[in-house]
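Re: the 191-residue chain
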Amino acid sequence: MLDPLVVGTDEETHQVTAIISHFIRPGREQGYEEWLHGIATTAHQFKGHLGVSVIRPCDPTHLEYVAIVRFDHYNNLKIWLESSVRQEWLERLQPLIEKPETIQTLTGLETWFTLPNKPMKAPPPRYKMAIVTWLGVFFTISILNRLLVPLLVGLPVLLRTLLVTGLTVALLTYVIMPRLTQLFRKWLYPI
């Protein structure tokens, strides 16, 4: 039933995201919205649930809803996805959708490589993600070494390293990687 793209054990794979796509039958949007509210409320009761974000269709001729579901560990997500409670909700969903749902599971670097308003069908090849990540880390560390490290010279080495690496991760996550992904989108996601 599920074909997750996860590699590793639960101990190695923390915070996991499932991207679930549904194509809704025309005229069934209200029913789907009610179903979505119900299943999201139910999912929230499961251990490790971190939230749901929904991307609603912009084009009335292409009624694809994308739910982005986050859990703290892959095993907790798997328990939810395979639960009898979720299976009951999926049975209620059948009259509302045109084709079976698709599920993609993201656990690592690939979450940095999502494009806004475009659900990712498959992550880019690992070597491409590694090259773009390396560029992001290189430029971020270079800038921080030039601008920030001279200001922190009086601090203990461990504290200085903690500040620089923390700022590096924050910049990569919220500023650098979204822009690099956009810049390299044609190379990362060739059509």
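The mean pLDDT is 82.
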